[in-house]
Amino acid sequence: MSTQKRGIEKVINKLPNKSRFRFFLLFVLISFSFWTSTKLSKEYQLIQPFFVNWTEIPKGVVLADRPTQVNLSLKASGIEILWYRLFKRKLEVSLKNIDFSPSDRVFNFEDQYFNIQQQLLNGSELIQISPSLLPLEYSKMNSKWVAIVPQATIQLRPGYLGEEELTTIPDRILVRGPQAILDTLQEIQTFDFVASDVHQVIDQNIGLKPLSGLEYDTDQTRLYWPVMQYSEKSLTIPIEVIHLPAGVKVKLFPPQVTLRATLPLSLLSAVEAADFSLAIDYNDILENQPSVLELKLLRHPSSVKKTIWEPKTVNYLIRK
Fold first, then answer.
1. Can you point out the beta strands (E) in 41-191?
2. Sheet-wide strand order for 313-319
3. Which residues, in sequence order, are CB contacts of 30 under 8 Å at separation 6+?
4. Nearest Cα to 177, choosing from 150, 135, 210, 136?
5. 13 within domain boundaries
6. Closest Cα to residue 273, out of 252, 259, 254?
7. How far is Cα 256 from Cα 240, in angstroms, rounded to an integer?
8. Where a domain ends, among 93, 123, 140?
9. Parent domain of 100
10. Which residue of 39, 212, 226, 261 has the fewest C-beta atoms within 10 A of its own C-beta?
11. Residue 217 covered by a domain
12. What is the pTM of this model?
């Protein structure tokens, strides 16, 4: 037992002490650092594969869903090679100016030489791209102009009205997709727009609801609705008789009516009774000989939003 113990102590005594071991370890680390630095600073020539990430694909073009890879022949330092191997494995390649009208479009990577060189590390030199020519597998979608329908819930402040219909600008967009879907597509809806106490012009961009399998020319439109303050004005309007034969007189009961017009507050004082025309048609008497005649509004200012008159009908007496 004592012999075994002495043997263990003998081995331990031969080991370096802590200070000597630390010095040895530091020496190894420094040597390894110098060796690594020397190796990484040298320039090498290699073939490095990169995956291609296609960008700026023209609308209506669908590329085949498979990865594209090219091999770049490079001159680069060891540290740059290590960076390529560990991190940088993709190239951004634009299809913006590619003509997809031929059915067998071939992409020439030589035209992208400068663009690819710019994406490499500063010390790297691009020698060759392989393959230099790559057939592009793609399909083209059909297209159709489709109306945009706004989805809006708007509450106006009392006394305010919209001058016209709520519109979108543009009011239609070009939609691309399979023909079977386009054949049944009638409209593209906006996202819901909700507003309350509205008393000013609505002029706001809003997104379009996406539909599976379809591609839009734009993903948003502009909601536009001019809103103004309105008021009501009462006017006394004389009733006219149209298509009245010569020598015939028609006496009306009453001969005039009260008309209430809703119009912009700013135009209230400018609108007069002469701007309106309410009439009965003598031909209605000849055809049906009714006991009362319905009044028809023949003329009114375009700025008037709404008109109401009382009474709606009048009695008549014919004199020849």
1. 43-55, 61-63, 68-77, 90-94, 106-108, 125-130, 133-135, 138-140, 142-149, 152-156, 160-162, 167-169, 172-177, 187-189
2. 249-253, 313-319, 293-294
3. none
4. 210
5. no
6. 259
7. 9
8. 140
9. 41-140
10. 212
11. yes
12. 0.54
